[in-house]
């Protein structure tokens, strides 16, 4: 579609429009692919299928699949109104914690939404005391001793619950990054690179920590997926320009996280883009800045008394800059910021 669009622009205006430099990928889809890589690499348990409701718990490296185990318990807890009521009653039993816990049901995930898996295990981990009691009491209600034993064996051990909590904390990084990028009130493209970089750093740093060693294979798969799509952003100017056009931060992210060389490259590339468009709009000698104010006599005297000779050199350097560069630096070095409640589009409008 973009190729056809580029052809039509060429036919109508004679200008070249490069599709590769205009394709902005769906960041939510990138998050989905990366997080799904983490989940599917760590857990091989099947998702719930109404046609085959009995879920089996697989073994990996001598351990039970905790994600599949939680999913199997959730399916049983949600399989009937009677079981839902049992789980609710267990939460209402004294003694209660202070404040009294909110009575909620367990949630079942689905394969098309990675965040549903996060919500499922996060809810179960926070309710683990009640989940353990539910599994035990449901086992006691089974018609035979064999089924009773099978049900009670589904109860997670302390180590298994610990791994569930750690895995939920890993998924929380993806959820936080996606929430920061998502916005219904204004543009969010300027948050794309920081969100990807933050998630990559969070997962990459934990992949080598002994605390998360059991998840290292999955974390590496997820990090590689993020890196793959991050490389594609280098083909587009939109990401870095959108960040520079945020008046509250401008090039602050580049200065802080990219290092001096990459920061300089980003600014130099932005200057080329700005220069091209500025010349198209105003010509070689066009100057959209306000005219210089006349310097008063007292200002001249005060300048003579100043001991800072560097100020004159700096002013001469600015005066000798071409109109487009003065305009570019005027914005980049300004103290402007976006007021609370105002979107970037409103600020520029």
Automatic annotation (TrEMBL):
GO terms for molecular function: zinc ion binding. Keywords: Metal-binding, Nucleus, Zinc, Zinc-finger. It comes from the Eukaryota. InterPro entries: RNaseH-like_sf, ZnF_BED_domain_contain. GO terms for cellular component: nucleus. It is found in: Nucleus. Its main location: nucleus. PANTHER family: ZINC FINGER BED DOMAIN-CONTAINING PROTEIN 39, ZINC FINGER BED DOMAIN-CONTAINING PROTEIN 4. This is Uncharacterized protein. The lineage of its organism: Eukaryota, Fungi, Dikarya, Basidiomycota, Agaricomycotina.
């Amino acid at each position: 579609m973009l190729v056809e669009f580029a052809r039509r622009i060429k036919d109508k205006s004679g200008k070249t429009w490069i599709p590769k430099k205009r394709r902005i990928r769906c960041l939510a889809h990138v998050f989905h692919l990366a997080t799904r890589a983490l989940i599917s690499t760590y857990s091989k348990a099947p998702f719930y299928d109404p046609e085959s409701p009995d879920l089996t718990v697989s073994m990996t490296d001598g351990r039970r699949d905790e994600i599949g185990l939680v999913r199997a318990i959730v399916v049983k807890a949600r399989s009937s109104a009677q079981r839902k009521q049992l789980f609710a009653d267990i939460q209402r039993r004294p003694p209660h914690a202070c404040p009294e816990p909110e009575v909620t049901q367990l949630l079942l995930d689905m394969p098309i939404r990675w965040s549903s898996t996060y919500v499922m295990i996060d809810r179960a981990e926070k309710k683990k005391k009640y989940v353990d009691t539910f599994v035990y009491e449901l086992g006691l209600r089974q018609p035979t001793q064999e089924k009773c034993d099978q049900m009670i064996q589904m109860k997670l051990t302390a180590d298994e619950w610990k791994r569930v909590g750690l895995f939920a904390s890993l998924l929380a990084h993806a959820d936080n990054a996606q929430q920061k990028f998502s916005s219904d009130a204004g543009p969010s493209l300027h948050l794309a690179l920081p969100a990807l970089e933050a998630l990559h750093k969070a997962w990459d740093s934990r992949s080598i920590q002994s605390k998360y060693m059991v998840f290292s294979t999955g974390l590496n798969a997820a990090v590689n997926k993020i890196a793959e799509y991050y490389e594609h952003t280098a083909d587009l100017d939109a990401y870095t320009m959108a960040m520079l056009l945020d008046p509250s931060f401008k090039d602050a992210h580049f200065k802080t996280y990219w290092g001096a060389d990459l920061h300089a490259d980003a600014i130099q590339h932005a200057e080329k883009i700005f220069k091209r468009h500025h010349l198209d709009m105003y010509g070689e000698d066009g100057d959209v800045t306000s005219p210089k104010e006349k310097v008063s006599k007292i200002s001249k005297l005060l300048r003579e008394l100043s001991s800072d000779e560097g100020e004159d050199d700096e002013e001469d350097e600015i005066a000798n800059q071409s109109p487009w560069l003065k305009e570019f630096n005027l914005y980049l070095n300004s103290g402007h910021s976006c007021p609370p409640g105002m979107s970037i589009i409103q600020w520029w409008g």
